[in-house]
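Researcher: Please predict.
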Amino acid sequence: MQIILSSPQGVSSGVVYEPPPYTIDSFTTLTTTFTTQFDTSRRHDLTTIALLNLKQEEGEPLRVFIDRFGAIAMKIKDLTPNLILMYMMISLRLGPFANELAMRPP
C-alpha cells in the first residue's frame, strides 16, 4: 500500500510514503495511520488567541474595527460575553470609546 503525500498546490511529485510490509493488520490500524497522516492538514477552529492578536489600526474607524472584531468573534466556539468585553478593551486604540468602556462596562 502506498500513500501519496499532497500539498495545498496539489499532489507532490515523487513523494510517496510506503509503510513497511505487514504493518497494517486491521482496519483500526489503517484508520489510525490515515488519521495521523492527514490530521494536520484539516482546518482548525479559531481560538481566543485570534482576538488577542487583533488590534485596531491607526486611522481605522471604530465601526470598521467592530465589524472585523465581530466577524472573528462569531467564529470562536463558547466565547462568553465577559471574554468578548475583555478582548475588545485590549484591542481598542486609546480614545473616548475605550475609556468609556473601561469605566462603565455594559
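Model: The first strand starts at residue 3 and ends at 7.
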